[in-house]
Automatic annotation (TrEMBL):
Biased composition (Basic and acidic residues): 43-59
GO molecular function: DNA binding
Region annotation Disordered: where it falls in the sequence: 35-110
Function (record text): Specifically binds 5-hydroxymethylcytosine (5hmC), suggesting that it acts as a specific reader of 5hmC.
Biological process according to GO: DNA damage response; regulation of DNA damage checkpoint
InterPro entries per record: WD40/YVTN_repeat-like_dom_sf, WD40_repeat_CS, WD40_repeat_dom_sf, WD40_rpt, WD_repeat_DNA-damage-binding
Organism domain of life: Eukaryota
Pfam families recorded: WD40 (PF00400)
Protein name from the UniProt record: WD repeat-containing protein 76
Alphabetical keyword list: DNA damage, DNA-binding, Repeat, WD repeat
Amino acid sequence: MASNKLTDYELKRLENIHRNEQLIASLKLQSMATQLSASTKRPRAETKSYKVGPEKQPKTQDPTVIRRSLRTRGLPPDAKGLGDNVGTESLRPPEASPRNLGPLSMRDVHNGVSSDRALIETILGIEMKPQMGGSVKCEFGRFEGENSSGAVKGIGGLIKKEENGVESDLKLESLTLNQENIARVVPGNIMNMRFFPTSNMRMVVVGNKAGNVGFWNIDSGQGEESGIYMYHPHSGPISGISIQQHCMSKIFTSCYDGFIRLMDVEKEVFDLVYSSDETIYSLSQQSNDPKCLYFAEGCGGISIWDERTGNISAQWSPHDDRINSIDFNSDNSNIITTSSTDGTASIWDLRSIDADKFKSLKTVGHKRAVHSAYFSPSGRSLVTTSIDNTVGIANGVNFEDISMIYHDNVISRWIPKFKAIWGWDDAYVFIGNKNKGVDVISPLQRRTIFTLQSPYLSAIPCRLAAHPFKVGMLAGATGGGQVYVWTLNGERM
C-alpha cells in the first residue's frame, strides 16, 4: 500500500539508491574508507626536526598600558616609524642605556687602544695656522666670484657659465682610488661624514649607527690604525655632524637618542648642549653664525638653539613628517632648504618665520620620501634625492626649472639611503650606486655621465663628502664602516 502512494520520481530514486549500495558492497569501498580514517588518526612519530618552544603561560596581568615619559624612565626616545624614512629599522641599540645628562670626558668615551693625544694636538694646532681665504660652504665647495670675462672662478679653476648650468675643467677620469687611501674608521653603518673645513689638513670625521664618532687623519702616514680615533658619546645613530671653519676645536654631533653634544677638544669633553624626548634627525649651522644650531626634531619640526642664551630661540613645523636634511644657501645665509619624508623638499626664508603665514619660497615634490636637499656651491641650484628613484635638480632665478633624473635609489633597508652631493662647483653631482661605484650626474646634460669604479671598492658608498679645499678629493663611506678616498691621479696620502 505504501508503495502505491510514491510518485514515479521517488520510486526511481529508491531504485538508484539500492543499485548504488549493491555496487559499493561489491567493491568493498566502505571497509577501505574505514581503514583509511583509522590510519589518519594514528599518533605521529617522535621525529620532529624543529625545537618546540616553551608552553605559553596564561595572562595574569591587566593589559592596560600606562603611558610614562621616557625621560622620567631614564630611557632614550623611541624610534618607531622609521621604516620608509631611512630604511633603518634596526638603528637603535637593542638595549636602551640610561641617559647621561652630564658632560662626558673624551678619555672615558675613547675606544682606541692607543692614546688620542695626537688627535687633540692636531686639532688644536690647526686652529693656530692661517686658513685659505674666501667663503667655505661646509663640505660642498666654494666660489670666489666672477672675473671680467663672466666666467665663475671656483677652487677647481675656471668653469664656463652656460644658459642652464656650468661646465667644469675637472677631468672625472683623473679621480682615482688607491689601495692606501682606504681605512675602516668605525664598526657598522656610517650615517654621517664630513671633511674638516681647512686647507692645512686632510681629516674625515664620521658617525655611525651605534653612536660612535670616528676620526681619520689622512695625513698621519701609513700603518694599521694609523691616525684613526673613535669615541662613543651617544647611544644611537649619529644624525648630524657640524664643524665650523673658524672654530674646528668645537664639533657638534646630534643623535637619534635626542641629544646634541659638543666635542670641545680644548676642554677634552663631550658637553651636553641639548636633550629632547623627541628624535633628532638632522643638524646644521649657518657658516657665519657659529652660535646657533638648527636641528630637525620630532615629526616635521625645526628648532633653533642659541648658545648665547642656552635656550631654544625659535621653533616651527615646516613639514608634515620628519625632516631628513637642513642646508643653508652659500649666497644668502637667510635662505635654507629642507627635505622631508612627506615627499617634498622646500626652500625657506628665515626672515619670514614670525609671519602669520610662513610659506616656502619653492617646493620640489617627489612621489616618496626625500632624504636630502643641498644647495650648490654657488647657491644657484638645488639637488634632491628621493627613494622614488629620482634625483631632482632645480635651478633658475627662483629655482623654477626642475628636472627629475632617474637614479636607482632603493637599496637594502640595512644600508643608509643615498644622498646626492655637489662637487667643487655647480657642474657635477655625485651619488653612490648599488654596483659599488659613484655615479656622476651632469645638471646641464640632465643625466649620469660617468661612474667612479675601482677594484678596491668592496662595498656600496652610501655617504659621500667632497673636501672643500682639495679639488678631486672625494670620500665615500659604507655600511661596513670603511672610508674610501678618491684623489686626482691617485695621489697617495
